[in-house]
Write a structure and sequence with these properties.
The structure is a single chain. The protein contains 12 helices and 10 strands. It is an alpha+beta fold and about 375 residues long.
Length: about 375
């Protein structure tokens, strides 16, 4: 999970959908035309060039003219996250091509990556979605099944962890902690799309909003490794964790999944690695970051493999590069475990700065071409 995210409210699934295709950070110029929306972010403004535009393919041309790193979100009317772009540095631009169905949305800029963001209401009218490839429909169906399988497999592992906490068994709880998170980490973009579950389950101490209670995995992680004791409150939080994960399990089947959201989600998983796992911030007490790291990479690769036949047809060179970089990163991760079929990784506090930089470089080498996958899928 990222350190901070938008506050959201629970609402029923909406029929309107927007799916994003993200490109690389660049210094290039803005596009033009009816289907290009310029988004100018500053430290106190979020300006959009159009409040209303035709449904169909739309390009968001984002420029950060502020002094702070910002994020830009596209939200459904109920505040669920549709898509997001993080870490947009001052003076840089990013392009996001989207296929938008008619409906109301919100574009939010988040200077400093804190708070609810500066928001603009926008509307997509008329138009029609791009023609669908039946192979991509099959990929979506397979990925939906995969996401549900991951959620289903997570519950018994999480229940083992929760039971150890409730039994007051510190060592058993420590042993069960990292395995209980693997399925969640593999499919994290889907969990985050619901908005209200992630802040309860996977929030870090530095990601708490004003008045938000620290709950979920990382609160229990702190008790186990830093406080070295299990309290009555921890036992109650273990029950809450299971309740929240069961809610997630039930909702996975209702998630809005599209070919481009799969591709964009794969890139988001690499962003999760770059901003949380490589830095050691995610598992700051247990130092089990490499388990999360591997699960994020696996989730990204699973989505990629499902989209690969279409992507290869449209951009063979990109697929060759992605195969190469996924292979290189997986080989590098294998250095930190004795058994390639095990998730028993080296404790991350034992990984030195030079090795962390090597891991970071490998993540960046994969993230750059992966940011082009969604565009290759919809060519």
């Amino acid at each position: 999970m990222r350190a901070v995210r938008l506050s959201v409210v629970t609402a029923a699934a909406t029929a309107a959908a927007l799916t994003a295709v993200t490109g690389c950070t660049e210094k290039g110029s803005s596009g033009s035309g009816d289907r290009v929306i310029s988004v100018t972010a500053t430290d106190d403004k979020c300006e959009v060039s159009k409040k209303e535009f035709p449904a169909g393919h739309v390009e968001l041309d984002i420029q950060n003219k502020g002094s702070k790193v910002t994020e830009v979100y596209v939200l459904f009317p109920d505040d669920r996250i549709v898509t997001e772009r993080e870490n947009i540095g001052p003076g840089t631009k990013q392009k996001v091509t989207a296929e938008v169905k008619a409906g109301d949305y919100t574009i939010a800029c988040k200077p400093g990556m804190k708070g609810d963001g500066i928001r603009q209401a926008v509307k997509a009218t008329g138009g029609k979605a791009a023609k669908r490839d039946p192979r991509l429909d099959a990929a979506v169906a397979a990925y939906r099944k995969y996401a549900q399988e991951q959620a289903d497999a997570t519950l018994p592992l999480a229940e083992t962890f929760a039971k150890a906490v409730k039994d007051g068994d510190l060592e058993a709880a420590k042993k069960a902690y990292a395995p209980s998170r693997i399925g969640w980490e593999r499919t994290e973009p889907i969990a985050e799309s619901f908005g209200d579950i992630d802040p309860e389950v996977d929030v870090r101490a530095d990601g708490l909003e004003a008045g938000q209670k620290f709950t979920g995995w990382h609160r229990l992680e702190k008790s186990l490794w830093e406080d070295k004791k299990i309290t009555a409150e921890d036992k109650s939080l273990a029950d809450k964790l299971i309740t929240d994960l069961k809610d997630w399990q039930k909702r996975v089947g209702k998630a809005i999944i599209t070919p481009t959201s799969m591709a964009n989600g794969a890139k988001e998983l690499l962003d999760e690695v770059a901003t949380g796992k490589v830095t050691g911030e995610e598992e700051r007490y247990s130092h089990t970051d490499l388990v999360d790291f591997k699960a994020n990479v696996e989730g990204a690769e699973d989505a990629y493999e499902l989209l690969k036949p279409v992507a290869k047809e449209n951009d063979a060179a990109l697929v060759t590069e992605l195969d190469k970089q996924f292979g290189a990163l997986n080989t590098l991760l294998d250095k930190y475990r004795a058994d390639k079929n095990s998730y028993d990784f080296t404790s991350y506090d034992k990984v030195g700065d030079a090795d962390r930089k090597q891991l970071s470089d490998a993540v960046n080498a994969l993230a750059e071409p992966l940011s082009k996958l969604a565009a290759a899928v919809v060519k």
